[in-house]
TrEMBL record:
Every Phosphoribosyltransferase domain range: 44-163
Locations listed in the record: Cytoplasm
Pfam families noted in UniProt: Pribosyltran
Presence of the UniProt keyword Cytoplasm in the record: yes
Gene: apt
Taxonomic source organism: Nocardioides hankookensis
UniProt-listed NCBIfam families: apt (TIGR01090), PRK02304.1-3 (NF002634), PRK02304.1-5 (NF002636)
Protein name per UniProt: Adenine phosphoribosyltransferase
Catalytic activity, reaction form: AMP + diphosphate = 5-phospho-alpha-D-ribose 1-diphosphate + adenine
Length: 185
């Protein structure tokens, strides 16, 4: 697995806007609040550009057909990454939120269980996709999304995460997927 760092003064300043919220959503959890970053146009632009780099080749050309964003903060980051790359966006939703035929995968979170779904026609066989989300923790969400991509007959080109929680084993569950993280905590 490869981790590409995306350093730079604009990105460093953007990442510094992430706020720590202790004991949320339950005691003992230190929540990383990205809303201050999202509220700053310059910071958000730096983050979107850095995440989109994971879907480009060395010359800056897009090498993916779609960007997948995992519910829910992956929607916030993934849609503008798709726009930056000039490709479509596909939401990966919690169970029961998509109106047509879906594929589903259940998995474990840091402190819960969940099921993710994707429309069966969201990806074409052979599509190359970039997965985008805010936090890599246990890796359950990313791994489940990788399984959904495979079920559609598509290929994961890479995974782009805003943050990685290094004290959790998330990267271990991703196999040899190309991983881009902007901040490791």
């Amino acid at each position: 697995m490869t981790v590409r760092d995306q350093p730079g003064p604009g990105l460093d300043a953007a990442l510094a806007l992430i706020a720590d919220v202790p004991d949320f959503p339950e005691p003992g959890i230190l929540f990383k609040d990205i809303t201050p970053l999202l509220g700053d146009h310059v910071a958000l632009t730096a983050v979107i550009d850095a995440l989109a780099a994971a879907g480009r080749d060395a010359e800056g050309r897009p090498v993916v057909d779609k960007v997948l964003g995992m519910e829910s903060r992956g929607f916030i980051l993934g849609a503008p990454v798709a726009l930056a790359l000039g490709v479509g966006f596909v939401p990966v939703r919690k169970a029961g939120k998509l109106p047509r035929a879906t594929y589903a995968v259940s998995y474990s979170l840091e402190y819960a269980e969940a099921t993710l779904e994707i429309h069966q026609d969201a990806l074409a066989p052979g599509d190359r996709v970039l997965l985008v989300d805010d936090v890599l923790a246990t890796g359950g969400t990313a791994k489940a999304t990788m399984e959904l991509v495979a079920e559609c007959g598509a290929t994961v080109h890479g995974i782009a995460m805003l943050m990685e929680l290094s004290f959790l084993p998330g990267r271990d569950s991703l196999g040899d997927a190309d991983l881009t993280t902007l901040l490791t905590v």
